[in-house]
């Protein structure tokens, strides 16, 4: 048993981690919306494990410092056969499993599935949004909603109109019906009563209450009205319903302050938009960020600061790291390497989980950088851990074969090195 390191394997493991990260990020961008998050996460970790395993296998083939030259001569065929099932397949399945656990809602937590759009339809909107981009943004959002979402549309000026009661967007036909209602709208000459719009919206939410779901509000306005915050927002805060507000081309600072206060007191976000053409992007961002939860991305919504999910993410990454190490040891068919790599993987997974949990911020470039650091931690520490946990080379049984002309009986001699699993 020796503590040793293969510098080439360390280098190749880091390169493999970088390549796995690049492929994973590409797939995350391409499939992040179309495929279920559980599948995307499984693919990400499966690809990462495959790239690290392939790079380490190539390194040991070139310079067999850890597993011995006898392994390279006799057992590399087995290693190639074990590579894909031990890394890609195993980590894909485990990644999906841990993501599924991470998606569970503990205790009384309810998923945000009901979305209310409250849209200003007052006379000032004729100048603020002459092309009615706010309704285009609403229609685009409805078209992209998941089939288990329910949506309601409220429009307001000095009064409130329930344009569309809560409806489950179960298919495109239903979405088209809601969009047709929006297309029939015409801007009025009325004033702006934000307080009344919020009160009427809460009444509709309470009348359409579903014990297994939670609601979220997107409110857009370009104006201001006197509002009794404590009274109007009390039910929103009690029921933990976030009101995300959008101020469109606001010239009145009181209007901006009002919308900021509404968002802050209910746990929502405020967005200041100067160009109505940008509203589709903002609507979609709010929708994407509502209760978003993935091992690979920043947690948002009411569970953003949840200690439970902090622990689950870090624990999941620890187990994923340990599984990657075990997969690498399995590829080399060496139980001593498997032990060393597994413990190193658990340590690296713990550190990677901490980096993800406290490093992700929701910024696209910044979060990609955090994931890169986590991938390199996984790849590097696994390869380094043979300096901490001693290993033996994997070698064959040596036999003394009887030579011609000798009557002595052949003897078998077992060496003390590892014979794999």
Low-confidence parts lasting 5 or more residues at pLDDT below 50? 396-419
Number of helices: 15
Number of strands: 8
The quaternary state of the protein chains shown equals: single chain
Measured between the Cα atoms of the first and last residue, the distance is 16 Å
Biggest β-sheet strands, sense, barrel = 6 strands, mixed
Strand line-up in the sheet with most strands: 3-2-1-4-5-6
Q: Which structural class best describes the helix and strand composition?
A: alpha/beta
Over the alpha carbons, how many angstroms does the gyration radius reach?
29 Å
Average pLDDT for all residues: 87
| Element pattern in H and E | HHHHEHHEEHHEHHEHEHHHHEE
- β-strand amount: 5-15%
Fraction of residues in helix: 55-70%
Shape summary: elongated
Structure characterization notes:
- Helix 1 runs antiparallel to helix 2 and helix 6 runs antiparallel to helix 7.
- The protein has a 6-stranded mixed β-sheet, sandwiched between helices. The protein has a two-stranded antiparallel sheet with strand order 7-8.
- The relative contact order is 0.14.
- By secondary structure, it is an alpha/beta fold.
- The two termini are 16 Å apart.
- Helix content is 55%, strand content 12%.
- The C terminus is likely disordered.
